[in-house]
Design brief:
With 143 residues, the protein is an alpha+beta fold. Helix 2 crosses helix 3.
Length: 143
């Protein structure tokens, strides 16, 4: 008999997680996956400290005991230059902008642990690329 994912017995998990097959396999490896833009110059160094945000986030996720549930990754450009440092949390698809290392405690506590996005940092914009033009000093020109 050929076994497929749809024929495997399923075990229920906690609210918000995908069912896990009786063999322990799942399609959802991480409860949350966080990407922090650390690519290029803008998010990483000019518009803030994207590298510092990433490092602090990894540290605090570990300290909160979330290392087996929350994955933190560097990302390439998220095509929202001028609004950064940028980060996005999946599977919710919550985007954050202007994140500074001192904001990370609140994001971990409220969103990654508590399940509530940090409203003051939530980013909303039109779909697609939303890169701001720059002035002579390379500062973003807000519309």
């Amino acid at each position: 008999m050929k076994v497929s994912a749809t024929t495997l017995p399923r075990a229920k998990t906690t609210k918000g997680q995908e069912d896990i097959a009786s063999d322990g396999l799942t399609g959802q490896i991480w409860e949350k996956h966080v990407f922090v833009c650390t690519s290029g110059d803008w998010c990483a160094t000019v518009d803030g400290d994207g590298l510092g945000v990433h490092g602090r986030l990894k540290k605090l996720v570990g300290e909160a005991g979330l290392k087996d549930r929350v994955r933190v990754n560097h990302s390439g450009c998220l095509d929202q230059c001028g609004y950064g440092p940028m980060m996005v949390v999946y599977p919710e698809g919550v985007w954050y902008h202007g994140v500074q290392p001192e904001d990370v405690n609140e994001i971990v506590r409220e969103h990654l642990v508590g399940g509530q996005p940090v409203a003051r940092l939530v980013y909303r914009n039109k779909p697609g690329k939303n890169k701001l033009p720059r002035d002579d000093q390379k500062r973003p020109i807000k519309e």
